[in-house]
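Q: A reviewer asked whether we had any structural model of the full assembly, not just the individual parts. We don't, so I'm hoping you can provide one. Inputs are below.
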Amino acid sequence: AAMSRKRLQQLVDALGRSARHFNKSEVECLIKLFDTLVAKSSNRFAAVGFDRNMFRDTLHSAFGMTDDMIMDRVFRTFDRDNDSCINVVEWVEGLSVFLRGTLEEKIKYCFEVYDLNGDGYISREEMFQMLKNSLLKQPSEEDPDEGIKDLVDIALKKMDYDRDGKLSFMDFEKAVRDENLLLEAFGPCLPDIK
Amino acid sequence: IFSKTSCRFEDISESSSETEEDEEQPVRHQEGNTDLPSEYWGIQKLAKYLKGGNPTATVIALCSMRDFNLAQETCQLAIRDIGCLEVLINLLDTEEIKCQIGSLKILKEISQNTLIRHAIADLGGLQIMVKILDSPDKDLKCLAAETIANVARFKQARRTVRQHGGIKRLVGLLDCIAVGSTRLTPSQAKDTEIARCGALALWSCSKSIKNKEAIRKAGGIPLLARWLKCSHANILTPVVGTLQECASEPSYRLAIRTEGMIENLVKNLSSEHEELQMHCASAIFKCAEDKETRDLVRQHGGLQPLSVLLGNSVNKQLLAAVTGAIWKCAISGENVSKFREYKVVEALVELLTDQPEEVLVNIVGALGECCQEPINRTIIRKCGGIPPLVKLLTGTDQALLVNVTKAVGACATEPENMMIIDHLDGVRLLWSLLKNPNPDVQASAAWAICPCIENAKDAGEMVRSFVGGLELIVNLLKSKNKEVLASVCAAITNIAKDEENLAVITDHGVVPLLSRLANTNNDKLRRHLAEAISHCCLWGSNRVTFGETKAVAPLVRYLKSNDPSVHRATAQALYQLSEDPNNCITMHENGVVKLLLAMVGSTDETLQEAAAGCIANIRRLALATEKAKYG
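A: Here is a predicted structure for the entire assembly that you could use as a starting point for your response.
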């Protein structure tokens, strides 16, 4: 169901303010894009927004993302009211950071993505989960898990400033400010510049 | 002996005359220790993820690797020995920007090590880095350029960069619009950083002559000129460094002059950064070979900051560059006058002791040029500059000796100075330099001897007192070097003014030796040779001997030269020679009369008289002959 012009205008105004990195005409385009993508879906709840699968498809086709776990986490981060559905507001505001966020905004975003259970810390187990498939060539005699565990240790050694065995937001922020490459340390969750 | 060096030709054509930073082959240190350093294991562990990890794991490992002390040789060599260097270079060849950046951050650090540089080049790393310069990612470009700057510190690497289109791309990095703005947007600041890294790389690469040329062809000069106008020392330094390095080429010196760069170079002499000051002074040193540049330096007020910088005697590299610049600028008389306002001569004399040779050469060179102004010759004496100068005549550095002899010679034109020089045995020291194997030193010493003889008291006596001295100088007429010959002739002219000495050199065979030189087209030699011949005619039967040894006919041809000083000297010689009838006949047969008639109307009185006197002798002989024939 298409929105009335008046409602569209109100929405554009509101989002123009909250999604700081887009101007009004860009917001309007994003809303139209949302409507188009949603209309393509066959899901009966589609009128309200993206569900997990649709969102993952979009992430894949538009941004070349392939890691299922990460994509799932991105979905959860966009879905701020946790209703398993990304509505148009969450869509525009999420994209504002995703595409054009400042370093500070991106750090917050990535941390949220990586903090799998949302307890404010990235734990060893969570790191293990995310890095599980990152060794392509396994030396055959070695237990593959050992390699991943070592990698987790290496990451902690680098980023765990308060030495409590897990990464708080402060740890993560400091590490990224020190070395920008670590922003997506546990997997690509931002669009690729290519 | 000295015009050919013992280097391979290839070395000379590739590298500039500057000393290369590491021209020697990398020295292999003793790698005999059996205990591997602890870093070895840590790095090997990380290497595993570089080789077998996906980009996410690779980035974590790359970031972690930077926590090792990459400036330490043990770490650097560990990276190489584990085979990690290949992996790092392979990562550069992927499309994963984060991996490329992470890898370059490491390569940039470790390429400070000579062995690593060579290894990187051997593994084809340079070609890949050049390709990366095309990337749209600004951070990547900067890192690639900075790493190239480190690796391109030896000849083959510089060649490789050029052969793969690197010079063109590096010059391209300088092409951005940010210059001149004092407050930069973040994007402009990034572009400035890119230009800075490009300039660093170009600076390293510019040590090769072919690269200097390539930079010019790629349009580098106007871009360097543009950046020269900015005020940030961190980009100015590599820009001026590059310009100064390239200023050994005339095409660059011309551009530096015509593109208004002298003004900026002068301005930056007053920078707070000593390295920048040094490079500016160096550039001026090289460019001031050309007169227009010397004038421009003065017009832009450059002589004062140079004089002020003489006060910094601690930084020897800076001092060498500054004294060099002053030396070359002082070639122009107007600059010498300006330097006097700043009391440069006094400052230079004070520096005459206790400086390294590369500084002394320039100080003495400068003093020599300053002696163009007579008052400076007096100032040097009053500051006590003559004793240290004479002392330097005992040194062995060839370049220094050339400059010292010139300076001493210039001072010797003042009789009061000459007294001190003689008292300190300076003339004997100059005379022994005639034995120096380097012809430049020989010539310079001979030139200096001339004013010494002219201005010494009892010059004849003094010359006679050098045992074997007259024989030595006459024998130098056998040299093949034109400058030596001209200077020795000039000295002989002076020696011959004393009759006793003239007799001695005649005994040593000076006449035939001079005659042997007569067949020359070199105007400088012709002039001094003719003068020597005229003076040597005044003893015994030398006139006749000159005729017998066939000096006369060639002398007649000298009159066809364009040089008025040659005309004058030749006319005088011919006049002296024409006192002998056989010589008159020879001259006449060679068409001298017509040539001399043209000179009888000259405004130069000496020339007039000599020409007329010579013609008169010829006529007199002709008349006498006719009378004898026909009664």
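A: Points you may want to mention in the reply: Chain B touches chain A through 25 residues (CB under 8 Å). The radius of gyration of chain B is 33 Å.
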